[in-house]
Design goal:
By secondary structure, the chain is α+β, with helices and mostly antiparallel strands. Helix content is about 25%, strand content about 35%.
Amino acid sequence: MLEFDPFDGALLIDKPSGPTSHDVVDAIRRQFQIKKVGHCGTLDPNATGLLIIVLGRGTKLSERLMSSDKVYEGTIKFGETTGSYDADGELVSSLPVPPMTLAELNEMATTFVGDQMQMPPMVSAIKKDGVPLYKLARKGIEVERQARLIHVYNFRFSDYNEPIGHFRVACTKGTYVRSLAHDLGQKAGCGAHLATLRRTVSGKFDVANAITFEDSLALSNGELEKRIIPFLKLT
C-alpha cells in the first residue's frame, strides 16, 4: 500500500484581498519548505475567500478539485462599466441607473440561471498561443475568444441600495462572475461591474473551515500538519 507523507493533502486558506493566488502558493512553499504546492482555482487579487492549496502528492488531485461547483458572494455596482468587468478596470461608460426594486433585480438575475454560453473577459488567465489574455489586454490587444458552456444554479440578490446590489451565486467551474455582473448591467440598460467578490464554497469545502493566509504563515510545521486534509480524504 502506498504510504503518504503527513504533508500530502490540502490546506484551506481564506485569501485576503491583495495577494494573487500564486503569491499564496509561493509563500506557503517557502515558509514550510514544501517542494510541491499548488492551488485549485484562481481568485483574482482583489477577490477574497476560499483558496484550496494542495501539497505534496495532493497536487495530483488539483484538476479533480478544481472541477467542483463553486459558491460566491459579492457586490455589483450598477451604472458603471469597466474594461475588465470589475473594479480594477478602467471606466468605459457611466450611465444613469434606472429605478429598480430588489424584486425586479432578482427577476433579471433569474434569466441567467441554467446552461449558457459565456464569453470570457479579455482580462483573464485564459491563454491564447501560450500568452495569458490579461497580458494582451494590458497592451490594448483584443483577441477572439471562445464562448464556454457554464451552468448557473442560483443567482440572487439579498439587498439592493442603488447603485450597489449584494448577491450570491452558485455555479459550475469556469464561470466568470464578473462577466455575469457585466451582462446583468447590459440587461439593466445602465451597465455594471463586479465591485467585490468572495468565494465561500468549492465542492465539499467551505471557507468557514479555512484559516486566514496570515495565520497560516505563523503556524509551526506540527500545527500545519493538523490543519492539512489528508490525501485519502480528498479522493
